[in-house]
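Late entry, written up from scratch paper. The run itself happened at the end of the previous shift, but nothing got recorded in the book at the time, so transcribing now.
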Amino acid sequence: MTLNTFGGLWDSVDRHRSSVVLRLLATVFLFSCMVTLTLTALQLYRDYDRGMALIESRLAEINESYRGSLGEALWRLDRPQLELQLDGILHLPDIRIAEVTEIIASDTSMVVAAGERTLGPVIVRSFPVVYRIQGHEEMIGTLKVEATLANLYRELYKTALVILLSQAANTFLVSLFTFYIFSRLVTRHLAAVARRVERYDFRQAPQAFALQRKPPRHPDELERVVASFDAMSARLYRAYIDEREAAEGREARHAAEAANRAKSEFIANMSHELRTPLNGILGYAQVLSRDPSLNERQRDGLGVIQRSGEHLLALINDVLDIARIEAGKVPFDIVAVPLAGLLNDIREIIGVKAEQKDLVFVCNAARDTPEAVRADERRLRQVLLNLLANAVKFTDHGSVSLRVATLVDGRVRFTVEDTGIGIGEAQRELIFEPFEQTGDEQRQRGGAGLGLGISRQLMRAMGSEIFVESRKGEGSTFWFELDAATPDLAVAHPVTVPAQLITGYAGARRTVLVIDDAPTNRAVAAAMLAHIGFVMHEAESGAEAVEIARRTTPELVLTDVVMGGMDGLQTIHRLRLMPGLSEVPVIAMSASPSGGDEQRSLAAGANAFVVKPLHLDTLLQKIASVMPIEWIYAPVPIIEAAETISPPMPYLPLPLDELETLHRLARQGNMREIVMWAERIAHLDARYGAFAAELRALAKGYRTKAIVQIVEQHLEGRHAS
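Output as recorded:
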């Protein structure tokens, strides 16, 4: 029975071992013990001090009471009297030894002692024994009294024992009462809350929780805990529902983004393959356009081929831009971009497009606008042209404007506004998605739906954001902001001097080796350079190129980077190891404009890099940069483009149909076609060379209005004649 009772108590203790009640009980008990010990120590110290004072007082009384009688007896050397006096002292409490010693200058001084020495703590005091001789007191001996402290310590022990036992009993009872009250009022309810928390599942709808007790009149801490738990359960369940819905949305969005990335990657890979036939189309179009024997119909056909190829190339470049932006590999050159020149170019290009649709185009900057902004100039121009071209495209009546203003925080805001068809609220974000277009089918035919998506991502990469406000049928407003650049950082760009038409080079004929596994690409490069006068050799693989180079020792090598077998980089390395070819200039070619092929090519030993489709002027510039060569130009003067319109050249009659064609191209703002028209007209008759040179200079500088005015002056002169 005893064992069962003890076992039950032990189980209860073990069950409450980790309970807060047991810790509270232990805390109360330890605190009570500390308080009890402190109070007991203070009480003992006070009693000890009082006991010591009593003993000291008793010793002082002995000195006062016995000094005279002891002095009389010692002066008479009355031993019995001294012993009697000392026995009287021993009868006093706590006195154990009393001793009188005579003070004389001999070895026979008298010593009288009474009492026995005991173990334990004692206190000893010595007092002088004096006797009055001839009217003054003289010290004739000493009285030494020894008092024991055993009685004092015994009393202190009893006092401490009584205090400790009484306080321990009191502490134990208080602790038990606290344990019971706290267990009934707090811990059992906390245990119920803990069990509820253990069973709680945030994925299930929450149910109200109530404690097993009479509801208090006013909510206490436990009621607030329960209310907080119920509120938390409701929030967690709502958060779980929201997160589940968001996860489903994210999963769907991730699937859509993955499909979109796969689409972009596929198109980007396909664009690499598309550049091979484009290289042939655009390359031969350039070569054939330099043939002076072509008639008008043939030149028009070449123009169609050239424009179609360049349009397809522009689409491919847009796709590549999307792929690069999504991969975060778009290089940016953040500089101080002068606003004056940028706005002039925009004004001329968009002004012509707006004029064709009888729209009012406004392009201005506020008076306090800084001279420059920090951005990538080419990307900023691309974004503005995209936004304004879209504004013109979707506006049939009214106006299109570009306004530049400075904000209160010093940033510069670019705002493009139109009075066009507007954008519905549901389509405002959709228009920034790749390959997404709005408007009717006729308007959608004007592009691939990439411009706005590229523009937004370019601005985000430059630390800005494109915002839009629009209402259906009321027009649209797009804007973004850029940091201003200090005026001294703005660098004025020199006016572009138009390149002359290269027809050959001076000196002996030079040998060029073209390496490409695509026959079309080899033929295009060979035809371009053979037209200039180079002696061409072709190789369809790296191994064949090494063999041809060993036999012919070419003075220039053009090699594709990506080839089967020995690729272009390995070929360059092999050529550099061959005797007599270690210093031969090498130009690498690639249909991938991502920048990786260029870096690898230059690291492998190439002197320069060009991107396919090849542009003849660019290729000739690269050749001149890697080898000394003196070009022979077509006999046309060089005329520098200026900000003001130069006086028209002396009137030379041109065919009316040619002037009308040029006027149409000028109103369209098609600078590339204008340059090709100028080159073609210069080949038709050398007398048109000066006029063609001026056109090329203005076209290179995007001086659309100047071209229109010059052409209209010639048309007026033609009609007047």
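The first strand starts at residue 95 and ends at 102.
(Scratch paper discarded after transcription.)
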